[in-house]
Amino acid sequence: MSSRSSPGPDVDIISVREIESGYVSGSGSESNLPDIYFTKPHLAFLNRQLQFLEPQEILRWCITSLPGLYQTTAFGLTGLVTLDMLSKMKIPRPQLVDLVFLDTLHHFPETLALVDRIRSHYPLVSLHIYKPDGVDTADEFARKHGQNLWETNDELYDWVAKVEPAQRAYRELQVAAVLTGRRRSQGGKRGDLDVIEVDEAGLIKVNPLANWSFSQVQNYIKQNDVPYNELLDRGYKSIGDWHSTQPTKAGEDERAGRWKGQPKTECGIHNPRSKFAQYLQEQEAKKQEEVLRRALDGLEVSS
């Protein structure tokens, strides 16, 4: 009789039964399980339900429903509220939500000082810091990419300082879903924000405080004694890199101090990935054209 006629002692009997029944459970073979996937109707249904929940309820749903969950943050007020809420949920250690911070090397000193205070205030939280590839300081960044890259080539700056490090973090940490600090009241493209989104690469983005206003966020920070960026006491409401952030004036939108005088409203990590794929292809095409031109010029000289 062939040895394949019956399962041996090393075969998972549960997975055999699942195959025979047509159903798959979490205890069976992982090769039978799909990646996290939402159909459009399911995503719409979840957004209709979650929009009526408090942020803590949304966070609890995320923890129990989304494997590979991380929080991406630049330690703005909304992200700090999310962090504090998570810290009070008494989550078992395996389910703790780690933080991902993109150090562009151009943050305000006050932002970097806040990172140290956050580590001290929330000692159980793991923080993963990602910097632009191949550099550790602003001086090294300038030597590699040129002075004031954000002025000479803004899209390239977004790619090397934010988008590429974010994609590297997602890949190395096996991130499947992220908590963000975006809210509808921040205006711009965020005005019609859903609680749950899925980007082109399948990354799930959850905006647990999508329905909150700036005053709600600010009141939570004060009432719960959450450490925050000192720049907020100097008129800043949304804080990014020092070279593209200014204080806001009375009556201005919350993010009016970001890229002031420019049509830009997002830093890159929340823009479609296809935009940067197209940009990189265009840059590569330009390089190839330049190589070809120099080769042709060389041929003309030698002839």
Characteristic terms for this protein:
303 residues, alpha/beta, 10 helices, 6-stranded mixed β-sheet, globular
Structure description:
With 303 residues, the chain is α/β, with parallel strands linked by helices. It is built from ten helices and six strands. It is globular and about 75 Å long.
Order of helices and strands: HHHEHEHEHHHEEEHH
Q: How would you classify the helix and strand content by structural class?
A: alpha/beta
Contiguous low-pLDDT stretches (5 residues minimum) are 1-22
Q: Average the pLDDT over all residues and give the rounded result.
A: 81
DSSP strand count: 6
Largest sheet: 6 strands, mixed
**Which strand order spans the largest sheet, edge to edge or round the barrel?**
3-2-1-4-6-5
Helices, by number, come to: 10
Cα shape: globular
Distance between the termini: 79 Å
Briefly characterize the structure:
With 303 residues, the protein is of the alpha/beta class. It is 42% helix and 7% strand.
Please give the structural blueprint.
Elements: H1 13-21, H2 40-50, H3 55-65, E1 69-72, H4 77-87, E2 98-102, H5 109-121, E3 127-130, H6 138-145, H7 149-152, H8 154-173, E4 177-179, E5 196-198, E6 204-206, H9 214-223, H10 273-302
Parallel strand pairs: 1-2, 1-4, 2-3, 4-6
Antiparallel strand pairs: 5-6
Helix pairs in contact: 4-9
